[in-house]
């Protein structure tokens, strides 16, 4: 089966969907077993692990912001639950 997500750095707690993922679909190309908890648009982030509100979201091995709400593993990570460091 072809990968439908990619992890950029081993330090990341998010992956990037390389195609649209429907809720419940298996995420292929990430460590361990993971299912999409929500629909995730192509090229958007999804959590690899649970991320608590206030914790950093890591992409490219670097913090890109903080969770503004608890994020479940497999959930879409975007402006509704991610706050940039400057905000």
Count of DSSP E strands? 7
Tell me the strand percentage band.
25-35%
Query: What is the SS-derived class?
Result: mainly beta
Biggest beta sheet attributes: 4 strands, antiparallel
| CA-atom Rg in angstroms | 12 Å
Give me the strand/helix succession.
Answer: EEEEEEE
N-end to C-end Cα span: 40 Å
Structural features, described:
The protein contains no helices and seven strands. The protein is mostly beta strands. It starts with a strand and ends with a strand. The mean pLDDT is 96.
In short:
With 87 residues, this protein is an all-beta fold.
What is this structure's SSE topology?
Blueprint: E1 5-6, E2 14-17, E3 45-47, E4 56-59, E5 62-67, E6 76-77, E7 82-83
List keywords for this structure.
87 residues, mainly beta, 3-stranded antiparallel sheet
């Amino acid at each position: 089966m072809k990968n439908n997500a990619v992890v950029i750095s081993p330090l990341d707690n998010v992956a990037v969907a390389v195609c649209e993922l429907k809720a419940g679909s298996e995420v292929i190309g990430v460590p361990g077993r993971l299912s999409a908890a929500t629909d995730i648009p192509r090229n958007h982030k999804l959590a690899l692990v649970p991320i608590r509100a206030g914790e950093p979201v890591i992409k490219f091995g670097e913090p890109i912001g903080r969770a503004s709400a608890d994020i479940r593993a497999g959930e879409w990570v975007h402006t509704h639950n991610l706050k940039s460091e400057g905000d």
